Amino acid sequence: MKKLLITTVLAAIAALAFTKIKNAMNMKSQNFEITMQVDQSPAEVFKAINNVRGWWSENIEGATDEANAEFLYHYKDVHACKIKVEALVPNEKIVWKVLENHFSFTQNPNEWVGDELVFDIQPKGDQTQVKLTQIGLTPAEECYDVCQDAWTGFVTNSLRKLISTGKGEPTPKDTEWGFNEELIEKWNLNEKAAQQNFNYQMQTSKSPAEVYNLLLDIDKWWSGQFNETITGESHQLGDEFSFTVASGVHNSKQKLVELVPNKRVVWLVTDSNLTSFDDAQEWTGTKISFDISQVGDKTQLAFTHEGLTPQMACYGSCSGAWTGYMKLLKERLN
Question: For residue range 4-43, what is the model confidence (pLDDT) as tens digits?
């Protein structure tokens, strides 16, 4: 009897674990989709979708209706992305690929990078069906709720109106009002953005070991912009080094506190003196981390300055400087 009870309990635990794993896998593979039907022809729908400024946003630069063309979208500092028109099948399909992306309100600002947006158009009786699928936008992504809300609104309202009446409701150019502002208020995105640590991600064809080794050779990439001086080393746990900009506006001391070969490097800023700001010690106590991972045939590097948030006085200049150093690091890798 006791054996039967134990067997039953173990089976129940195994079933529960299997269900949780299955649900987690489903969450990761459940791409966002939105479908609607309109009275207009596939040709009219195809033309309307390609008129991206007519239904999504007037803040778009570049051609949106040519195969292999690239266009830029932005809304203030909340969202910016570069998209490539991967495929145009007249009156049937449109495919975009996200090449670059930046969200101000997510921990990973590059969440959309690599996603494909697929518009499928097909006749349904005397109507035309339009289905948008964003391959890569799943409930596991931090931006999912906001992004599904946004796409649902732009497709079922603005795009529908452009198709049916010839006039959509895109975000007007350089505006302070509109659907995007409603989303910012609804999802409290400004407050979320203010709490985000500065992040930067990149991919390279170099191996994780090559990326890791270059990160530890700090003189080769954390210099070259402002006549910097680096004293000390960053090769073994406990190593310390100082970083100074020649003009004297920035002095900081870093200690290597975490080291996982080919995977992770973390520095703790033990002291800082940022002379241009009222709180010259803003960096003190913050952490600078580098996470290395394999993504397909590429190596991905995720940089985070934990504690460097938009609420800090130095955020604008410091995030700009870090962006420059990350681009220099990428150049060294490539």
Answer: 555 554 454 544 544 444 444 444 459 999 999 999 999 9
262-296 residue pLDDT tens: 999 999 999 999 998 999 999 999 999 999 998 88
Record the tokens describing residue 14, joined without a space. 């195994």
Domains 29-193 and 197-333 fall in the same CATH topology:
yes
Backbone angles phi, psi at 42, to 5 degrees: -55, -35
Residues 120 and 17: their CA atoms lie apart, in Å, by 37
Listed by start position, the domains of the chain span: 29-193, 197-333
231, amino acid identity: T
CA distance linking residue 311 with residue 308, whole number of Å: 8
Degrees (nearest 5) of the Cα angle 108, 114, 118? 120
User: In percent, how much of the chain has pLDDT > 90?
Assistant: 67
Smallest CA-to-CA distance from 254 within 238, 237, 241 is with: 241
Q: What are 299's two structure tokens? A: 């190596």
pLDDT surpasses 80 at 213: yes
Only one residue has tokens 């040519």, namely: 66
Average pLDDT, the chain: 88
Q: What are the φ/ψ torsions at residue 93 (nearest 5 degrees)?
A: -155, 145
From first CA to last CA, the distance across the chain in angstroms is: 66
CATH code, residues 197-333: 3.30.530.20
Residue 290 to residues 17, 99, 113, 201, Cα–Cα distance (Å): 33, 22, 19, 10
d(C-alpha 56, C-alpha 179), whole Å: 10
**Burial category of 9 from C-beta neighbours within 10 Å (exposed 0-12, middle 13-18, buried 19 and up):** exposed
Report the alpha-carbon distance of residue 171 to residue 50 in Å, rounded.
Answer: 16
Q: What is the DSSP letter of 12?
A: H
Residue 30 sits at φ, ψ, to 5 deg, of: -90, 90
pLDDT at 71 over 90: yes
CATH no. of 29-193: 3.30.530.20
**pLDDT at res. 7:** 52
How high is the pLDDT of residue 29?
A: 56
The radius of gyration computed from the CA coordinates of the chain, to the nearest angstrom, equals: 24
